[in-house]
Amino acid sequence: MGIKGLTQIIKKNAPEAIETTNLHKISGSKVAIDSSLFIYKMLTTIKMTSKDEEGNELKNVSHITGIFYKTVNYLAVNIEPIYIFDGKPPDAKHGVIKERKEKSKANKELMLKAETQEEKDKFEKQSFRMTREHIDDIKKLLDLMGVSYLHANGEAEAYASELCRIGYVDYVVTEDMDTLAFGSPKMIRTNIDRKLKRSDLISIIDLNKILETLGLSYDEFLDMCIMCGCDYCSNISRVGPAKSLAFIKEYKKIEQVLQNKNLDITEEYLQKAIKSRELFKMYHDNLKVDELDIHSSTMQNEALEAFLVNDCRMSQSRVQKAIKKTVDLYK
Length: 331
Description:
By secondary structure, the chain is α/β, with parallel strands linked by helices. It contains 15 helices and eight strands.
């Protein structure tokens, strides 16, 4: 879910914090990529399957092909990616996870009852759940490509944000806006300017510019995000993003807002909000890069080509062309 309405708050109140550009702008940088989000996106938006000689449907490999081309695009302009995989989520997120599982189950049932292929495809997409096999597929791909990855002891975007906050990477690549709540100074999203239709554009969001323009400290910004609604704590009834911003600008902290405004809240809400603060800041100054199990390897051109062509049924000429774009980086 991320932070409800945060993108719109920034676009309306701090538009100068969003820069629309292309990857060449950040050539020479290092980026941490929120792996699970992009694997999910590839699997639910691109269905790359086929059938064998007996008519049996073969494995969907769209996550492998999608991550391959995404990675090539970064390497080709001298950007070093490190992929971060999710570990065990905090207990405070169990409610959200339970809700997602129930939604997935309901959509699977609707998929079985669907009368048209269009309906079936829609419910299948909404019922999708990522598996360990999907993660292992991408780890194998990254091993063959010589690209580093890290399995977090927690949420991937939290690790990625802290790696950016301490300067180990320059940007976090994700679509999840709670990356800013975790304290990442800069994040990269798919282009969010709907007036610009070019597929090569990205949006870079600068946290420090957001804070400066809104006139908030990081702690105040974090409280605003929590009030907007996040994975750890829902928003207050009838208090949306605009009111959350206004309340925090006036009262600075959630506790002060609750003391001064007659809001429909319970003690449980306040405890969830306080716990959310802790969770968003739990890795601040607590990740030591030299102690992290960062997996690295060297590029294996022939094995990579064989994997993509033979196992993933990709065009050999397209694979060779893509690999060629990155070879100079390994000379």
